Amino acid sequence: MSTWAIRKTYSLDMRPRYEALISARRVYVTPEEAHVVTTRDLPMPPPLVWEWLNDPHKRAQYAHEKVEFVPVVRPFGRTGVGARTHCVHGKRTAMVETVLDWRPFDYFTVEQAMGPFGERATFQLTPIPGGGTRLQLMERGRLTSLGFLDRALITFMLTKLVPTAKLLETLDKCIAADLARQRAPTIE
User: What is the extent of the structural domain holding 160?
Assistant: First the structure.
């Protein structure tokens, strides 16, 4: 003879709590913390600049060298906190980029790692009069185990070897060229 006991179970949906914790978490490199701060005013609205900063195919168009951005991890099928992209340079070099904070059309922060080099970078987009965007890129890197050398080495690297200002200038030109192509009359 078997005896059955009726037991109650309860379920708790933790998703709202998880989303609240994620939205409260901020990862932001301030200008004071940054080794290099680069600012450029672009004559395009923040959503368009955001798209160019985050679309892998568009990013490859303004990179310093020929690269391929390969999305590897996309939580919930989209870019956001925890998303990971591999930036492949040549045959054997890859940079891994992980999204740490994601506030669409406002700012995002990524961590990039490649060999001994690593950095956190915050891309801040601010609307400016006339429909444009002030893009401010704040970068704090590490290159050595001797932290006191990092500021000088990272500053040299991001202003002379692979200048961030040149990257943003190229971004500006690529967006402008794309907009001009879209506006050009079509011949049928």
Answer: 27-181
| Element of type H or E holding 62 | helix 56-62
Strands (E), 74-183: 84-89, 93-103, 107-114, 117-128, 132-142
**Count of domains forming the chain:** 1
Tokens of 38: 């680069």
Cβ–Cβ under 8 Å, residues 49 and 168: no
pLDDT of residue 105: 96
CA distance linking residue 84 with residue 75, whole number of Å: 9
Q: Does residue 86 lie in a domain region? A: yes
Contact 165, 40 (CB under 8 A): yes
The CATH number that applies at residue 165 is: 3.30.530.20
Does any domain span residue 11?
no
In a domain, 144, yes or no: yes
Which one-letter DSSP state was computed for residue 160? Answer: I
Q: Where is average pLDDT lowest: 32-41, 103-112, 144-153?
A: 144-153
